[in-house]
Amino acid sequence: MSRIVKINKELKIGDGGFITIAGPCSIENLDHMIETVEFLSKQGIKLIRGGIFKPRTDPDSFQGIGEEGFKIFKQIKADYAVSIISEIMDPRDVEEAMDYIDIIQIGARNMQNYSLLKEIGRTNKPVMLKRGMSATINEWINAARYIEKEGNPNIILCERGIRTFETYTRNILDLMSIPIIKNETDYPIIIDPSHGTGRRELIIPASKAAKILDADGIMVEVHPNPEKALSDGEQSLDFKEFQELNKEINKLD
Ligand code: PEP
Ligand code: MN
Asked: What is the reported pTM?
């Protein structure tokens, strides 16, 4: 059995259920977020993803809307019964994030940013720790222990694919990390089929595999118009594709 990470009164991760977290890679503006959340909440989605601080490989590409995004989260949470997961990259942003974000995401590039891990470890905010793109499972578990050692047990792991010689997919989604994490730890584990494959057409098969292997859920990128997305459009589902994903996931019940 996993430990149960409580997000709010109704929402728990690790209790044996399978949660679908969905939303855009980046939050682009308020209207874009409202359109997406309006759709997703009608589909029953209770936990919305969306980056405002974006760790981009190319310094010239869109870096996220930054702190302005906190206000968008505030409004979304006032108007819809949803919780928010979003990445924090800088320990100096942790305190402000407490009031607006329900789960702090630590991205793959920051998995071993020990000052960030410790800063979040000193809060009791739920935290989703993504696996580094070249991290072994052991290094990943040790990174989680840095958070836990500071006193925060509310840790969820997220497998988002690792880098190998293969270039067909953006990363290799290491699905064996699900039974391994379940055997070695009691952390809940979420699969990210979007970054894990980098290809829209592989998101449904990857998600189905995650559910069959008893992951605690998936986190998937969804955009009203993926061709126009400011980041990760090629791995984002449009609304129709998301409905198809939901249908396929529910069939496995
Ligand atoms: C993301 O979730 O948008 C993201 C940047 O993911 P990762 O840290 O896994 O690359
Ligand atoms: Mn992304």
From this structure: 0.98
What pLDDT digit, counting tens, does each position of 190-218 carry? 999 999 999 999 999 999 999 999 999 99
- Ion ligand 2, residues whose Cβ is below 5 A away: 25, 232
CA 227 vs CA 27, 141, 158, 165, 170: distances in Å: 15, 36, 26, 28, 18
> Is the CB of 25 inside a 6 Å radius of any atom of ligand 1?
yes
CA distances from 44 to 135, 198, 236 (A): 34, 25, 19
In angstroms, how far is the first alpha carbon of the chain from the final one? 19
DSSP at 91:
G
Give the ligand 1 atom nearest the CA of 158: 9
- According to DSSP, residue 26 is labeled B
Q: How far is the CA of 3 from the centre of ligand 1 (A)?
A: 24
Nearest atom (ligand 1) to Cα of 105: 2
Strand partners of residue 127: 104, 155
